[in-house]
Every structure is written in structure tokens, then in C-alpha cells.
# Entry
Amino acid sequence: MRARSASSADAAFLASYKPSDFSRPSVAVDIVALTVIDSLLRVLLIRRAEPPFRGRWALPGGFVRVGDAHRHRGESLDEAVARELDEETGLSVRDVYLEQLGAFGHPDRDPRMRVISVAYYALVRPDLVPTVRGGGDAAHAEWHVVPSRGLRLAFDHDRIVDAARERIRERIHTTSLARSLVARTFTIPELRNVYAIVTGEPQDPGNFRRKFQAMLDARVVERAPGKRITASKPAAVYRFA
# Structure
């Protein structure tokens, strides 16, 4: 009886509850899409077609769609980032490695109003780069070298890019993140190059070969059919298992 009364009280409270009576921040999602092109780590930036910061480079992203009452909540964060990824880059969440990076909520980060952004990073294999296209409110999409020297990104997107770069630098040795930054098949030097690019540190060939052998033994990677023609001799190619 007590539980039923509580339920009835909740229903009555929600029926008359007005969210507009309270100040609320808006919520956005931003996407740090990273890839390796010409042995450089690059981030996908879009040139904004609308104010604020019209004409400035920014990360793909946008507002989370919300409903107008407790019965109509809108979309989840993951749904919002999947939609923005598709609308502004043409990529699907099935194409990339996607992970939530964190929340960015400085009161003055957006000149329009109080906006809290939940950022994600997306790792894009180099062979998918030609499929990327700008869309939505993006006037143009382009891959820029990280760090983007000389560019002042819109909002606090410089800070978000730095945080994403630091995250993958921390995780590259303890996870299989590298599989999302290398082609489907690769040579040992090509994979070593990805580790060097992400960490910003040269990878000793002998030490890396031992690390790679451990990955082979653990069946993290495996031999792939064919060979890569190099300047010296054909090289064996591998793939992530």
C-alpha cells in the first residue's frame, strides 16, 4: 500500500513538473576523429558554416536532441554521437573505434549559452580516409596535423584534441588501439611506425620485434596472405586477429 501511494505521488508530481522552471545547460557531443596519413597523426576538422566562429576550424559535433517532458527524453549520448559522426563525416560507428573521452564544461566555453560537451575520440583506419566527407553545418572537412600549430580552433576544441591525444598515447601499449590506425594488412615496420607516431617517441626495432613476437604468440596478430613490395625485399604482411 505504501509503495502504491509513493508511486501515485510520483506520478502526480511528474504530471505537474515544469523543467522550464529551472535553469538547465545544453549538452553537446564533440568528436576527435584521428588517423595516420603520411606518417603523421591527423585530426579531422570542419570549417564552421554558421556563427558562432563562422569560418573557424572545429571538431565535428552538435547538440544532443532532447524532449520537452519527462515522457519524451530525446536521444542518448551514444545515439547523438553516432548521428553526428554520420552527418558530419559520413562515417558509421561500425567503421571506427569510438570511446568516450570526457566532459568539458567551463561556463564560458560557448558564447551562446551554458553548454556542456561530452567528447568522444574516434580512430579511423587510413583506408577509410577517402570516404570521409563534410556535412551538416560543416562547410568543409579536412585532416590537420596534430598538434595543429597556427590554428585557433573554435570553442575549447584545442583542449579536447590535446586530451584525446594524451589518452591514446597512454593506452597504445596496453590495448589494441593500433589496429584502428593501421591498414587492414601491415608490415612490422608499418605497425612500429604507428606506435612511434602516437607516442611521439622512436621505437627501437629490436625491442619492437620482441613485442610483436609476443603479440603473435598471444594470437593478437597473425600472418596475412601476400607480401608488401619494399625497396629492399618483399616483406611479410600481418593483420589483427
